[in-house]
Amino acid sequence: MLNLKSYLILLSVCLLGIMYGRWIQEDYAFIRIWDFENLAWMLLGIPFLFIQKYAGIPDF
After folding, report:
1. Does residue 60 form part of some domain?
2. Computed from CA positions of residues 14, 20, 26, 27, in that sequence, does the dihedral angle turn out positive or negative?
3. How far apart are CA 14 and CA 29, in angstroms?
4. In a domain, 7, yes or no
5. How far apart (Å, rounded) are the C-alpha atoms in residues 10 and 4?
6. Contact of 33 with 22, CB cutoff 8 Å
7. What integer pLDDT is reported at residue 29 of this predicted model?
8. What is the pLDDT of residue 57?
9. From CA 39, how far away is CA 26, in angstroms rounded?
10. Is residue 17 part of a domain?
11. Residue 22 vs residues 8, 10, 37, 38, 50: alpha-carbon distances, Å
12. pLDDT 10s digits, 2-50
């Protein structure tokens, strides 16, 4: 479950970055910001966290 908590924290940091980036985008036209679609792609990794132990991959 530590992997899941760590992954959810990472996802929340990404979400905050997206929201903050959209907030300052008008002031900095050159900045590149993730779309929410990228966050959806990262959500696809959650099922793999549950089989990580069985695959022999160490926790992070």
Report:
1. no
2. negative
3. 20
4. yes
5. 10
6. yes
7. 83
8. 84
9. 22
10. yes
11. 21, 18, 14, 14, 33
12. 889 999 999 999 999 999 999 998 888 888 888 999 999 999 999 988 8
Q: What is the pLDDT of residue 26?
A: 87
Domain range holding 46? 2-51
- Structure tokens, 15: 């979400």
Q: Is 60 a residue whose pLDDT tops 80?
A: no
* Angstrom distance (rounded) from CA 59 to CA 40: 23
Q: Which two tokens stand for residue 13?
A: 């940091």
- Residue 57 domain-assigned (yes or no): no
Q: What is the pTM assigned to this prediction?
A: 0.79
Token pair for 20: 């903050």
Residue that is written with structure tokens 């940091």 in the block: 13
Q: CA torsion angle for 46, 59, 6, 31 (degrees, to 10)?
A: -80
**How many domains is the chain built from?**
1
